[in-house]
Amino acid sequence: MTSVAAPEETERPAAFASLGARFVAGLVDLVVIAVPSAVIARVLADLPGRMADAVITALISWYFIASFGSPGGGRSVGKLVMGIRVVDANGGTLSFLAATTRWFLSVGIALPLAFLAIGFERGLPLQTGPAFAICVPILCVVVVDSYLAVANRESHQSLHDLAAGSYVVRASHTGPVPDTPPFARGHFAGMALICIGIAIWFSHMYPWARVIGQRTVELMKARAVALAKGKASQLIVAPGFAAHAGDTTWVVTALATIHANPPTERDAEVLRKSLACTLARAAPFAFRGAQLNMMVKFDPGSRSSGAAEYFADLELTPEACNGK
C-alpha cells in the first residue's frame, strides 16, 4: 500500500510593504513638501500672524489627502518611487474621510510641534498649560504610531492605518489584503508605559512646571489679601513664564480694577505700586525673580493710562515697598 504524499503548501507572496520601503517613501515625501514649503514661507513672510503657516499646512494637507485617496490612487510621490501604495481592506483606494483621518494621525498631528519649534526660534512665549496640553499628547501619538508599525510584524499597520482602516501594500498586489494575526494585548500595556514615560520626560524638559502650582496657590492667597485690604475691587492674578532667545523669565500677570480717580499720573502710580507691593509681600515665592505685568483700570475720568511693568527682584524689594 502506497501512501499519497500531501501536497506541498505554496508560499503566499508578500503583499505588505516593508518598513524600509515605507521609511524611504516618507523621506522622499519629506523632500517633496519641504522644498516648496520653504519657498512659500519666504514669499509669504510678510503676511500677518501665522497666515504663511496656515497656507503651507493647507497645501501639505491637500498633497497627502489627495495622494492617499482616489486622485492619487493611494500613491504619494514617495510611495510611487518605492513601488508601494495605500489601500483599504478590499484593496481599493481610501475614501476622503479615511484619507483625511490617515493624514491627520500621521503628518498632521506633528505639525503643532513644528509650530512650537518655530515659536521658540521667534522668541514667542510658551505657557506651561499649552505646552503640556499640546506636546505630551502629540508626542504620545507619534511614538505609539511608530511602535505599532514595528509591533505589527506582518502588516506594519501603525496607528494612522488602524484609524483609517488602511494598509500599505506592494504595487503588484491586487485584491483584498490577506488576514493578519491578531495584535497581542500585552502591547497595550507597553504603549501606556510609553505615554507615561513621555509625560515624565516632558516634565523634566520644563522643570519650572513643577513649581507653577505652588506659585499659583500663593498668588491666590495674595489676591485675597489685596482684596481684603481694599487695594483693588477686582483682581485677577496668574503666574507664567516667557521664553526670550533661550532665556526663561517668570512672569506674574495682574489685571485689577481700583475705584479711584487719581488726578495725576504720579497719584495713579502710587496706587499701582501699593497694589503691587501688597501682592509681592504676600507671595514672595511667586515674585522671586519675576517680572510683574499689571494692568489697572481706574474710575472713568482718570488721567492714568493704567499700565505698569515692574521687575520684582529690582523695584519691588522690601525697602522699595516700605509704607506701600
Please tell me about this protein's structure.
It is a single chain. The chain has two domains: 19-172 and 187-205, no CATH class; 209-311, Alpha-Beta Plaits (2-Layer Sandwich), CATH 3.30.70. Helices cover 49% and strands 14% of the residues. The chain has ten helices and six strands. The strands form two sheets. It has a four-stranded mixed sheet with strand order 3-4-5-6, with helices on one face. The protein has a two-stranded antiparallel sheet with strand order 1-2. It has 324 residues and is of the alpha+beta class. Helix 1 (19-43) packs antiparallel against helix 2 and helix 2 crosses helix 4 (96-106). Mean pLDDT is 80; it is low at 1-12 and 120-125.
Q: How do you describe this structure in short?
A:
This protein is α+β, with helices and mostly antiparallel strands.
Order of helices and strands: HHHEHHHHEHHEEHEE
Number of domains: 2
Number of E-type strands:
6
What Rg do the Cα atoms give? Answer: 29 Å
Strand content: 5-15%
Question: Which regions are unreliable across 5 or more consecutive residues at pLDDT < 50?
Answer: 1-12, 120-125
Give the structural class: alpha+beta
In the sheet with the most strands, the strands line up as 3-4-5-6
Number of helices: 10
Mean of pLDDT: 80
- Name the helicity range: 40-55%
What's the shape? Answer: elongated
The major β-sheet equals: 4 strands, mixed
The end-to-end span amounts to: 113 Å
